[in-house]
């Protein structure tokens, strides 16, 4: 065993992957802790009903920000990774993407603000939701910005800035405001989230461009759009599989059920924070290897990363499956009703982890269209099945449908990785 470890870590790429994954994991742990604490603050301060309104609004803007990003997040990651030394090119890629995203996200924010009364009464049948949807509408712009900026930083291996940009800083600011000002309503919490995202996106944009050199050329816009178009479908359908469910629950059930599902979903996502940490490291590597035509480097890095994932995530999965009531009870006694929802969602996230970084494998190696087909199947599967299962079985049914299609998405991606790159990430024990 010791000999095998020595032989693995004698490889410079594996050593770099492990060290940077460990660094990313540490920062991700801080990020996961921040997100967990933020959700705890919202649940405790607002109570189940108001927390349900807040999480419903948050899911709504997350879905719209995915639409507004136009698929540029993975395009930025792919092209910036292969041009990381050329500061002018890196800046141009980011600014080109933001130029279009700010226009689309701005329009969606205005439309969301204006339609908030109609949506709350006619669609969600919750008149009290109107003000929350209005105050959280500007967050569409902020969420789009922080993700694109984080992708640019990630592609340059600036993990210490990338992770806080994407999912730490704005949660810390908003959570602090909710506590300091003793916020009790979802609408006020939504306002603070929008303001926090505005501050965060401005600060990290400055961080991302301040030290760039003037080397390199402007990227070909046609190449960027050629990559972004299939990526857009991938992102929208992937986000639909994740964020459409709380919205659908909000249409059919009371806001408390939205809160129970949302909290269970956020706890379950802690299972895959290890995957997210590893993705931060390996996604740029996949792009760099692909640009050099090094398929063996891609295979070895992918299989090594799955081993890291399995070892790291298994204890987390076990704790969530064995102690769901305890974990849900941390957010309030009434949240224990969501224990079964948590167990179901954790199983879906466990499949996500053991399949590895299959989505990034396809996208960083030029097989975006395969990933687009996969996400279309899973995304439409969620959008069709969740309303049916929610009507029949409530939030439990929604969790079953969501977990099934998230698992299916990853297993289909494994199939396409095998077909295009000729190795199976599920067979992570094979020699590397």
Structural account:
The protein has one domain (2-421). It has helices at 2-9, 12-68, 72-81, 87-123, 130-136, 139-155, 159-167, 169-180, 186-209, 221-252, 255-269, 273-292, 295-322, 324-329, 339-354, 358-364, 368-421. With 432 residues, it is mostly helical.
Describe how the helices and strands are arranged.
Elements lengths: L1 H8 L2 H57 L3 H10 L5 H37 L6 H7 L2 H17 L3 H9 L1 H12 L5 H24 L11 H32 L2 H15 L3 H20 L2 H28 L1 H6 L9 H16 L3 H7 L3 H54 L11
Number of domains: 1
* Radius of gyration over all CA atoms, rounded: 21 Å
Overall 3D form: globular
Q: Bin the helical content.
A: over 70%
H-E order:
HHHHHHHHHHHHHHHHH
Which structural class should the secondary elements be placed in?
A: mainly alpha
Strand percentage: under 5%
DSSP, total strands: 0
Overall average pLDDT: 86
Largest sheet: none
Number of helices: 17
Unreliable residue stretches: none
Distance between the termini: 15 Å
Which key terms come to mind for this protein?
432 residues; single chain; 0% strand; 17 helices
């Amino acid at each position: 065993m010791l000999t095998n470890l020595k032989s693995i870590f004698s490889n410079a790429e594996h050593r770099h992957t492990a060290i940077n994954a460990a660094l990313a994991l540490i920062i991700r742990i801080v990020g996961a802790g921040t997100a967990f604490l933020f959700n705890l603050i919202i649940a405790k301060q607002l109570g189940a009903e108001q927390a349900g309104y807040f999480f419903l609004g948050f899911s709504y803007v997350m879905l719209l920000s995915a639409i507004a990003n136009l698929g540029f997040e993975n395009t930025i990651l792919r092209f910036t990774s292969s041009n990381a030394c050329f500061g002018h090119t890196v800046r141009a890629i980011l600014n080109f993407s933001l130029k279009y995203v700010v226009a689309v996200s701005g329009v969606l924010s205005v439309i969301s603000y204006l339609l908030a009364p109609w949506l709350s009464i006619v669609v969600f049948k919750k008149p009290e939701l109107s003000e929350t949807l209005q105050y959280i509408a500007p967050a569409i712009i902020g969420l789009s910005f922080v993700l694109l900026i984080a992708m640019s930083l990630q592609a340059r291996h600036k993990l210490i800035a990338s992770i806080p940009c994407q999912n730490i800083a704005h949660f810390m600011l908003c959570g602090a405001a909710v506590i300091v000002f003793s916020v009790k309503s979802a609408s006020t919490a939504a306002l603070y989230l929008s303001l926090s995202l505005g501050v965060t996106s401005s600060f990290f944009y400055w961080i991302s461009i301040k030290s760039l050199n003037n080397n390199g050329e402007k990227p070909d816009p046609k190449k960027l759009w050629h990559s972004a178009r299939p990526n857009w479908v991938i992102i929208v359908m992937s986000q639909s599989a994740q964020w459409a469910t709380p919205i659908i629950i909000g249409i059919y059930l009371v806001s408390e059920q939205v809160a129970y599902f949302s909290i269970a979903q956020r706890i379950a996502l802690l299972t895959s924070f290890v995957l997210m940490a590893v993705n931060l490291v390996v996604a740029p590597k996949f792009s760099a290897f692909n640009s050099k035509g090094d398929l063996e480097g891609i295979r070895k890095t992918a299989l090594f990363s799955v081993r890291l994932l399995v070892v790291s995530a298994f204890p987390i999965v076990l704790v969530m499956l064995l102690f769901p009531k305890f974990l849900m009870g941390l957010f309030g006694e009434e949240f224990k009703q969501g224990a079964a929802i948590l167990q179901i969602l954790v199983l879906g996230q466990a499949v996500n982890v053991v399949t590895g970084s299959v989505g990034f494998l396809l996208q960083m190696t030029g097989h975006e269209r395969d990933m687009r087909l996969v996400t279309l199947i899973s995304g439409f599967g969620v959008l069709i099945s969740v309303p049916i299962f929610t009507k029949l079985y409530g939030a439990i049914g929604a969790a079953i449908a969501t977990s099934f299609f998230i698992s299916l998405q990853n297993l289909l991606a494994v199939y396409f990785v095998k077909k295009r790159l000729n190795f199976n990430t599920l067979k992570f024990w094979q020699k590397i």
